[in-house]
Amino acid sequence: MAPPAVAPAEETAVSSSAADVKPSYGGTTITALPGDPILPEGDGENAPRGSLSSAEAEAAAVAAGLSHLESRGKHWYSYLLTWDFWIIIAIGQTLALCITATNTFTSFLVSVNTNIPAFQTLLNYALMTLIWLPVTLYRHGPRRWARVVWKDGWRYLILSFFDVEGNYFTVLAYNYTNILSAQLINFWAIVCVVVLSFLLLGVRYRLLQLGGILLCCGGMGVLLASDHLTGANGGQGRDMLKGDLFALAGATFYGFANVYEEWFVSKRPVYEVLSFLGVFGVCINGVQWAIFDRRSFEGATWNGQVAGWLVGYMACLCLFYSLAPLVLRMGSAAVFGVNLLTGNFWGVIIGTRVFGLSVHWMYPIAFVLILCGQVVYFVTGSVLGDSKKPWLGEDQRDGVAGIGTAKRKALAEAKKKGLVPAASGEA
Hints:
Elements: E1 20-23, E2 29-32, H1 52-71, H2 83-111, H3 117-140, H4 142-173, H5 179-185, H6 187-200, H7 207-230, H8 240-265, H9 270-292, H10 304-330, H11 333-340, H12 343-355, H13 362-377, H14 406-416
Antiparallel strand pairs: 1-2
Helix pairs in contact: 1-14, 2-10, 2-12, 3-4, 3-9, 3-10, 4-8, 4-9, 5-8, 6-8, 6-11, 7-13, 8-11
């Protein structure tokens, strides 16, 4: 089911006697032909491929770079000392803040009787299309873009369907059940991610990783318990059973969407994935809004303040979608899910400043537990963490050398340590 590989450029016939040979770490011998582009140029997302020998040299460079990087991870805390770990934590908290901000803007809209969740999400997909589709057309060109649509369009359609329905059913659930119940069921999204990654992507979790996930969930449980004790769980919903079923459906769709997007961004350029997610998201969400949610406009309030809140909502959600692929590449769908658990904590911080709420003493404990769970998840892991994806092959041959990927890190390490000879004409 992997997307088709990018068509290789014209091969160049060069005698094998002209090859430069240089030994590398781990007994790997790297052969490079003069003039072959060993390492991808630019951002690595859409680098042109050279001859067959160049492709083989690149694969050898990746293998050597991976071997060298993994040899450095000999201590249980090795990954915790890398920039990647702290970048994941920072981006993860930014994503949680983005989700909290979108919830805050939605609360503002609802307070003035403007309850248009489907339309809000439609605007986000439209903004993503406006930003990322021109980038994709520029990088691919119209003909190659059309080939991607023909060959991989159905895959992107499925990804967009999962994402749209996850958003729709989760928002719908809050209309029927209470906040506590909906958030408890959202744990199911992490369960789905772990099970799907294990069954479909070949991910094998260590006991400490599972323990880290459980610790994060325990922290979230403390948050929800404090909400229940203080009566901040939203009270009795209109139809608890219906709302819980909607929340369960939304969490399931989110689980599928996160795993499928991790698979996509590890094989394809990020701008391509986001552009198609936007295009198909507009189509699916637009039809859904036109059928089910048109009446929400009838009693809505429309003024400059509402317009400002909608712009803020779109900006935060678009930033969320644009940063998410980095966590999925550098970490995984599971890491992505546990990072979002801190969203409730940030929601309370905003609530104290904006809505005059009070912070319960259990909230700081819950936040520390969630962060500790993220640390435990990466204990005894290699310096590559979850960026080395098992479904891409041992040398990550089937992956793209994009920002945050293990392949890109390996190529950079191979070049930095002199594990590969520089190609002719390179500085």
